[in-house]
Amino acid sequence: MKINEFFRFRLSFGKQLIRLHHTNALFFLFLTVTGFFLFSTVFRSSFPELRVWVKESHIWVGFFSCLPVLFYVPKARKHLHALRKKKPNRMNVYIVAAILITFIGSGLVLTFHRQFPPVVNTWSLFLHDAATWLGVPYVIFHSVTRSKWFKRLTAKAPQKKEIGAPVVIDEKQPLYKRRTVLKMIGSTAIVLAFLPAVIKWVNPSFSLNGSTKPDGNRLSPLPTPDAKSAPPIGGGRRGDFRYYTVTEIPQITNDNFQFRIDGLVDRKASYRWEEFVALSRSVQVSDFHCVTGWSVYDVTWEGIPLKTFLEQAGVQSKANYVKFYSADGVYTDTLSIEQALMSDMLVAVLIDGELITQQNGGPVRLITPKMYAYKSVKWLNRIELIEKEHIGYWEQRGYDKDAWVKSL
Asked: So where does this one cross the membrane (predicted)?
C-alpha cells in the first residue's frame, strides 16, 4: 500500500484490510521490541530508569493496538467468506487472531494486576509468555514469507509445459521449488533462534552447557535446618523464581559478611556470619509474589522474625519507618513500623531447608509474604530505624509504595 493511501478515508474493502494489516504489524513490531527489552535482565540492570519509560510506552501502545482488532471485527465475516477457498490463508487469520487475543487479554490482566488475585496473574503471565515464545516466531515467519522482498526472491519466469509429457527433474524443474527451500531455511533459522528461550521457559533450570552455575557465596559454617525445614513442612515450593537484579550480584563470604541494626534504636547490633548463623530461627510457609505477575507457592522459609530483631534492639519513639539495605550498595526499601512488626515479616536464611542461593538474594534476604517482592530486599545486610519515610529503589522509579498483594 502506498503511503498516501494509508491515510485516506474512502478505500475499497481490500485496501481497508491491507491498511489494518499494516497498522497491526507496526504495533506488533513495537510491542515485540519493547517486550524483549523489558524481558532482558541486562537492560533491567543497566538502564533501570529507561526501563520504566519503556514499560509505560509498552502498556500505552498495547492499549492502542486493540484498535486495529476492533476495526477488523465487523469486517471479519466478509473477509473469511472471501477466503473460503483459501484454507491456508483462512487458517493464518485464525492463528494470528488467537495470538493477538491472547496478548491483549493477558496484557490487560498484567497491567491491572492489583485488581486480580495472584493465581489469575500467574496464568496471565503464562499465556503472555506462550504468545511470545510460540506466537512471535510464527508472526516473524508469516511476515517474511508474505513480504514483497521474499516474493521477488522466489519469483521465476513462467515456463511452458507440454501436456502429457513426463516431468524431468533438472535445473529448470527442480524437485523442490526455490520458495519451498527458502521457507524451510527460514523456518529452521527462526526455530533455532527461539529454541533456547522456549526450552528455558518450559524448563527454567535448563542450561546450554548442561551444567548448573555454582553459587558464588562462600560461607562457613552452613546453618543447620530446623526439622520443619528439612523436609519442608510446606511440601516443597511450587513454581520457579525468576531472578532480577539492578546491579552486579554481590559475592558474600565470611570475610565481608556483616549484618547491622542501627539508627533510632536503644541497642545497636552487628553480627559476623558465625554469630548470625547461631541466632535462633523460626519456620514459616508462605507464597512469594512478583509484581511482574509470577508467583511461587508454598515456600518454606527459615529465619529470624523481623519483629524479634526490632524488639531486641529497642525501637525509639521517634522511629516511624524501617529502612533496609542491600549488600549490592544500591537497592533499598522501607516498611512502616506497623508493617515491620507483622508476625510474618522474616529475615530469611533458608528456603526449603537449603541456604538461600546468591542468585536468589542469599545468604540473607527479607521476606514480606503479603507484599510484592520488590519489598523483599535481597542480600540484606543492614536494618536502620528512621524517622522520615524513605522512598525505595523501585518506588523512586514509578512503582507503587502500596505493595500489598490482592488476596483471594
From this structure: 25-45, 57-73, 93-113, 125-144, 181-202
Give residue-wise pLDDT tens across range 25-74: 999 999 999 999 988 888 887 888 888 899 999 999 999 999 999 999 99
Q: Calculate the average pLDDT of the chain.
A: 87
Which cell is 324 given?
533496609
How far apart, in Å, are the Cα atoms of 380 and each of 220, 324, 361, 375, 401? 18, 7, 8, 11, 20
Number of independent structural domains in the chain: 2
Distance CA 220, CA 256 (A): 12
310 and 196 both lie in a single domain: no
pLDDT of residue 211: 46
DSSP percent split of the chain into helix, strand, coil, nearest 5: 45, 15, 40
Q: What length does the chain have? A: 408
- DSSP secondary structure letter of residue 16: H
d(CA 374, CA 358): 17
Q: Domain range holding 145?
A: 3-202
CATH number, residue 334 = 3.90.420.10
In a domain, 178, yes or no: yes
- Choosing from 202, 223, 239, the residue where a domain stops is 202
Distance CA 43, CA 50 (A): 9
Residue 82 lies in a domain: yes
